[in-house]
Specification:
Layout lengths: L1 E5 L3 H10 L6 E5 L8 H4 L3 E2 L13 H16 L7 E2 L3 E4 L3 H13 L3 E5 L2 E4 L3 E3 L1 H14 L3 E3 L14 E4 L16 E12 L8 E3 L1 E4 L6 E5 L13 H7 L1 H5 L6 E12 L6 E6 L2 E5 L5 H19 L5
Parallel strand pairs: 1-2, 1-10, 2-9, 5-12, 10-17
Antiparallel strand pairs: 3-8, 4-8, 5-7, 6-7, 11-14, 11-15, 12-13, 13-14, 16-17
Helix pairs in contact: 1-5, 1-8, 3-5, 3-8
This protein binds flavin-adenine dinucleotide.
Flavin-adenine dinucleotide binds next to α1, α2, β3, β11 and β15.
Length: about 325
Amino acid sequence: MHIAIIGGGFAGLGLAYFLTESKRVRVTIFEALSPGAGASGAACGLLHPYPGLGARRSKLASEALAVTKQLLRFAEGFTPKIISCQTGILRQSVNTEQQATLTSHAQEWGDVEQLEHNLFLIHSGITVHSKNYIEGLSQGLKMRGVAWEYQKIEDLQQLDSFDGIVIAAGYGVRSFPKCNALKVKFLKGQALSLAGDAPIEKSLISKGYIAHLENGATFEVGATYERTFLDDKPDLETAKGLLAEPLGKCRESEILACKAGVRVCPLEHYLPITEKVAENVYVFTGLGSRGLLYHGYFGRALCQAILSKNRVLG
Ligand SMILES: Cc1cc2nc3c(=O)[nH]c(=O)nc-3n(C[C@H](O)[C@H](O)[C@H](O)COP(=O)(O)OP(=O)(O)OC[C@H]3O[C@@H](n4cnc5c(N)ncnc54)[C@H](O)[C@@H]3O)c2cc1C
């Protein structure tokens, strides 16, 4: 059985990892640019169960985190570069509601510790170097036999010879008519890479965030949430303006680069979309701000759905 995946971001790679666990499945990834060219390469790498303004624990967080850790370990075997820092993430509450929510998490879940009245350490938090992770994962998938074709898919008919097609094209999903009915919105995000040591010892989420692997030569300040935008390209002046608050903590550091991508967010919930949109055609999108948390868990679920429908045994 030969599956075509359109898109080499977190979604496509997470799915390919599980599909290639079955020896009877071959996978080809079609990527318009390069692995991680979309939102995944721009991601600041914060992986933890409590994203978003509400700071509530995400659904399926424990299970999803465990699957992502499995993928991180796999990717680490295929690159000498540092992929993750697993010493926790600080979260500073920005209003009384967040503080109350995080305080209750500290009592209810074993992975949140209240350090000060408004400062919490998420012990389960991991900072991922997205580019290194994608590099390791892509390399590992090549070793498992995944083929990469660097071309933009304009029409699904180009892939007629495959037994199954999965559209995991991130923002590119909007150019596939079969995905027109998906209930999603698009949110541009930008982040800045800065030189030197971060001003705090661990990654910090507050108004905006500062993300870093400990002892790194660079760190990231992010991210914007832009509802209206002209394109998915970096726009340094807009990013600097929207990130003024976290940037204020980093006055000593030079800005090296501005990264941008577009998040695909489901309209009615925050769980990713894994749907069959036509015979043998599936879509895997809607990872929103939780790409790192959910790409493995939902990639595995979609893999199981595809294999069971086609009765492929491992
Ligand atoms: C600035 C920023 C910061 C973020 N920070 C975090 C974070 O800290 N933690 C976190 O968990 N999430 C974060 N996110 C969200 C996360 O990046 C996304 O959830 C995730 O990257 C979505 O992955 P994806 O594979 O669905 O899409 P993408 O990563 O966009 O991948 C889609 C791929 O498909 C390719 N493609 C598109 N159309 C076609 C076509 N027609 N043919 C062939 N290829 C095609 C693209 O080139 C691209 O490589 C952040 C996002 C942004 C923008």
